[in-house]
Amino acid sequence: FIDLDRFKQVNDTLGHAAGDELIQQVAARLGSRLRQSDTLGRLGGDEYVALLPQATPEGAGRVADDLRAALSQPFQLAAGTVTIGGSIGLATAPLDGTDYDTLLRTADHAMYRAKADRGTTATQPV
User: Fold this and answer.
1) Nearest to 39 by CA among 61, 18, 54, 26
2) Is 46 a catalytic residue?
3) Cβ(3)–Cβ(71) under 8 Å?
4) pTM
5) CA dihedral of residues 68, 74, 77, 82 (deg, nearest 10)
6) pLDDT of 20-68, one tens digit each?
7) Which entry of 3, 5, 46, 96 is annotated as an active-site residue?
8) Is 94:126 a contact under the CB 8 Å cutoff?
């Protein structure tokens, strides 16, 4: 579960067109870091989910670190250069659940824990 940091600030200061452009660039950047077997989806707003069906828990952690590093690099928008970031929460089947809803909820809780820890990657909710 990936939540963009400072997205609201971009929308509020540069406008919704800049926010829309940023959303598109984020999707392209994140998608370019994933394997063909992985799936990236946008849930809405500034939230994304990456499904990594062939990743081990350690591999998923490495992917999350890579995605977070990719999000920390500046984005060139028509309205100017912006730097955001991302908070990522991980859930692994079957340890954290076996169905989509449980895994998504667990990853979401882990993401909020990561956000509280200032943009880290968390694997389990507290």
Assistant:
1) 54
2) yes
3) no
4) 0.88
5) 90
6) 999 999 999 999 999 999 999 999 999 999 999 999 999 999 999 999 9
7) 46
8) no
Q: Which helix or strand (DSSP H or E) is residue 122 part of?
A: strand 121-122
Q: What percent of the chain has pLDDT over 70?
A: 93
- Token readout for 39 is 């799936």
**DSSP letters spanning 14-78:** H-HHHHHHHHHHHHHHHHHTS-TT-EEEEEETTEEEEE-TT--HHHHHHHHHHHHHHHHS-EEET
Tell me which residue of 3, 29, 17, 26 sits closest to 80, measured CA to CA.
17
- Tokens describing residue 33: 């870091």
What's the Rg (C-alpha) of the chain?
Answer: 14
